[in-house]
Structure formats: structure tokens, C-alpha cells
Amino acid sequence: MSKQALRAVVIGGGVMGAGIATVFAAGGWRIDVVSPSPKTRNALPDKLADGMKRLGADPDSCRARVYATLADVDWEDVAIVVESVTEDLALKQKLFAEMEALAPAAIPLTSNSSSYPISEIGKGLATQSRMMGLHFFMPAHIAPLVEVVRSVHTDVALAERVGEWMRALGKRPVQARRDVIGFLGNRIQAALMREALYLIDAGIATPEDVDAAVRYGFGFRYAAAGPILQKEHSGWDTTNAVSDIIYPDLCNASASIPVLRKMAAEQRIGMKTGQGFYQWDSAAIAREKARYEKALMGTLAVLKAEE
Q1: Lower Cβ count inside 10 Å, N or C end of the chain?
Q2: CA torsion angle for 280, 286, 290, 292 (degrees, to 10)?
């Protein structure tokens, strides 16, 4: 497909959808964003302009069109579709059935779902060979990782082409060769989170000290080397010996930790409600978001320098 034809359709214009659209726009792609919400559609131009500025791209170069329905889109020269709506399996299945009927037969149909396997989203559809997960991490326009997730039906060469597009857009793609629940990043993150919440629930550590242990300990190293490469430095013999001691004592809960269930039930869910493990007012939220983004951009600069 020629560069002239590089055009993406993003379904969903919320936080993740807008971030994904920004990635394509900053890379010079033409983008169509579909959202049924007038409020979302009206807010999108400012979100795209702000995101492009943060990526050092010219907001005036953004070639974006916004539509209310899939039927409104001109599908003739679309190169890829990225679905990024709420985590509702029935809704995603409905959208994929519509996309299959509307989109050119050869183009990849992808989902940004963070939990549902693409084999479930595309179940029963005729062209599952072109369907795959395309999982961005929040904030989508800043976090480098993108997971390309295959089902047993997915055309491997097509998945690799999507990965190449992501790399050309400045992302770091990884290929998940099976669409297991949670894929790569969220499975690894969930294992860490289960143990972190267990340590808090058991009274072994405060939330502040758990955060500090990760940020200033192994998390500090992980921007320089992932867990496998890091152990290549330190030695698998030590890891093997320590595993026999630590693994039997790790939390192996098969459901959410009690402290997490309690917080969710009490609506102590973080910035959204003003209280989680930490207290939040509007000023504190603004300070933290500015600090967080500055730290992310600094880390991104380190990673980009290696490429």
C-alpha cells in the first residue's frame, strides 16, 4: 500500500482512542475517528492538537475527520482499523461484524481491548485471518509499547506488517503469538499487582513503601533492561536458587485481594473519586499528572536514544 493511501480508522474517541489517533496523525497518516458522542467528537480536535504538540509534531499537519457512525466513513482506501471502545464484549463483537461488512477485504481489523482475546471478539466471523489485537498502553501517544496479538486464525505476515507500521510510527511493537487473556504486558503487570496488594492487605508494607520499592529498586533498572536481560547481567543461577525460596511464599490468590474489593465497593478508586490509597483534590491531581508526564517523557527520551 502506497504512502498516499496510509489512512487509519479509529473507532472510539475517548482517552485511548484520541491517543491512538494522535499516534497515527503525528506519523503523517490520515485519520478518521468514529464516535457516537457529540461531546467526544467536539473535544477531539483539541485533544489531537495537544497530543501532537507533546510529541513535537505540527498540529496543523493533522489530517483528521470525525464521524458519528461507521457507515459515514469512506472505506475505499483505508489501510487499518483500530477499535478502541469501552471493554464490552458484545459491543466489540457487533462492531467487528459491521467492520467486516464495510472495510476492504484485505485490511487488518484490530482491537485495542486490554482483556478480551481477539478470537472471542471475532468469533464466528468469516475473515478472522485479518483480525488481531493491537493493544496500546496509556497514555497511548506516549507509552512506546504496542502489543500485536494473534489468534490461531490471524495471518502471521499481516500481523508482522502491522508491527512494522507501529515501528515506523515510533512505537515498540511486540508480537503475542497466542491471544491469552491479558496478553504480555498486563499478565506480567497483574502478577506484580497481586503481590503488591497482598503486601498492603497483610500489613507488611504501606502503599507508599510498595511504590518506592518498585520505583527505586527493580523498576529503576527495568527502563534500562527488561526482567530477562537484567537476569542475564546478574546470573540465572542466583535466580534459580532464590526462586525455590521465594516462589512457595508468594501470593497465589485466584481472585482480587480483599483490600482491592473493599476499595472498589467504597468507591475509593483514586483520582476519579478523590480518594484511593492516596488523597486527591484538583490541585494535587494537576501536580501529579504534570510530574507523571514529565517523568514519562524523560524515560521515553532515554529509550529513543537507544534506537
Answers
A1: C
A2: 20
Residue of 71, 28, 12, 22 lying closest to 45 (CA atoms): 22
How many angstroms separate the Cα of 3 from the Cα of each of 7, 27, 30, 198, 207?
9, 11, 10, 50, 49
| Averages of pLDDT over each 10 residues, the chain, 307 residues | 72 96 96 95 94 92 93 95 96 98 95 94 97 97 97 98 97 96 94 98 98 96 94 96 97 96 97 97 97 94 89
Cβ-in-10-Å burial (0-12, 13-18, 19+) of 154 comes to buried
CA 176/CA 165 separation, integer angstroms: 16
DSSP single-letter state for residue 75 = -
C-alpha cell at 136: 496500546
Pick the CATH number of 186-256 from 3.40.50.720, 1.10.287.470, 3.10.350.10, 1.10.1040.10: 1.10.1040.10
CATH number of 3-176: 3.40.50.720
What residues does CATH 3.40.50.720 cover in the chain?
3-176
**Contact in structure between 131 and 156 (CB atoms under 8 Å):** no
8 A C-beta contact, residue 210 and residue 196: yes
Distance of CA 54 to the CA centre of its chain: 18
